[in-house]
Amino acid sequence: MDSPALSRRRLAAMLALGLGTALPAAALARDLPDPQRGPLVETTKTSVDRRLTVQVLINDAGPYPFLVDTGANASVISKELAASLDLPRREPVTFHSIAGAELVETVGVDRISVGRRTRRGMRMSVLPERYIRGAGVLGLDWLGTQGLVLDFARRQMRLGSVVNRSDSLSVTVPVVAQRSGLHLIDASVVGASVMAFLDTGSTTTVGNLALMNQTQRRHAASRDWADIQLLSVTGQVLQGRLAALKSLELGNLKLGNVPVVFGPVHTFEYWGLVDKPAILIGVDVLDVFESVALDYTRGQVHFRLPSSSSNRQAALDAATS
Predict the structure, then answer these.
(1) CA distances (Å), origin 7, targets 191, 261, 320
(2) Strand 278-281 to 300-304 pairing
(3) Looking at 143, 177, 194, which one is the last position of a domain?
(4) Do 203 and 312 reside in the same domain of the chain?
(5) Three-state DSSP class for 265?
(6) Cα(284)–Cα(227) distance, rounded to whole angstroms?
């Protein structure tokens, strides 16, 4: 559920993100400059400009802006908000982040409501607001099998049923496996199979060490690599290596020059995705699309491309701003 701490402008100075598709009616391919080697990216506070939120009521108080994180197994509330609402303490739990496992405090919440959906009697992990950069995070324990639509064009996030539009701008990728609520989709890097999942709470796309090794063997990334650090939501620091994948395919979608941070990311260990190449796709890639809809009922992910050439270019430009 982490949001690795990267300055988007510094990242863009190192890498350019491009998007193309195998669908002729929705071609977005363009020539991009080769990625350039960048300096060590220092640990900074995460930019949350690209992440979308929903309005949440906590015990009928609020609303407060919460992230919905499809890569998090547990929901989180900021330490500051928990204190202001005088929420009762519960037993500490082991919390898993990109950098490892750590014992954290928890509080009890009678009711958590978004619109007409309410969950009762939940326990939430407590983390400092300066790390989660918001009031809280709703994880898979709250989301369950409910559908989720990330409407980047309108800067909105919606929960509920998903309606798929079958036209030349929409691409559907099937879910091929599930692990404790995590939905995996099939992907490939330069023709080699990769397990992928969408993490709506992460501003950065990351890959495991198995993917890094495969990428190096197949010369599937830029020649220049950069050392960086990632900051987890618990304040732990993880060393990583940044490079650009020459191509990443999701169904009929083909993305080029995709910036990926590789490292011993604990998230993959937690979900049992260490031995095989795997990638966590963050909002830095997702918000190039007009919208992304996760249809858990049908086991599908729907990607919608920008509807006009000007909007497509604006989306591409925004990805590197």
Answers:
(1) 31, 13, 11
(2) unpaired
(3) 143
(4) yes
(5) coil
(6) 19
pTM of model > 0.90: no
Domain total in the chain: 2
* Closest listed residue to residue 231, CA positions, set 243, 240, 242, 219: 240
Q: How far apart are CA 43 and CA 34, in angstroms?
A: 25
Contacts of 1 (CB under 8 A, 6+ apart): 69, 71, 72, 73, 74, 76, 97, 137, 139, 199, 201, 202, 233
Separation between Cα atoms, residue 317 and residue 35, nearest integer Å: 15
- The rounded distance, in Å, linking the Cα atoms of 8 and 86 is 36
Q: Strand pairing partners for 291?
A: 151, 304
Q: Please report whether residue 2 resides in a domain.
A: no
Among 96, 58, 11, which Cα is nearest to 284's? Answer: 11
Q: Which helix (H) or strand (E) holds 83?
A: helix 79-84
Q: Read off the pLDDT of residues 218-264 as tens digits, 9 standing for 90 and up.
A: 888 887 888 888 877 877 788 889 989 988 998 888 888 899 999 89
DSSP string, 185-251: EEEEETTEEEEEEE-TT-SS-EE-HHHHHHHHHTT-B-S--EEEEEE-TTS-EEEEEEEEEEEEEET
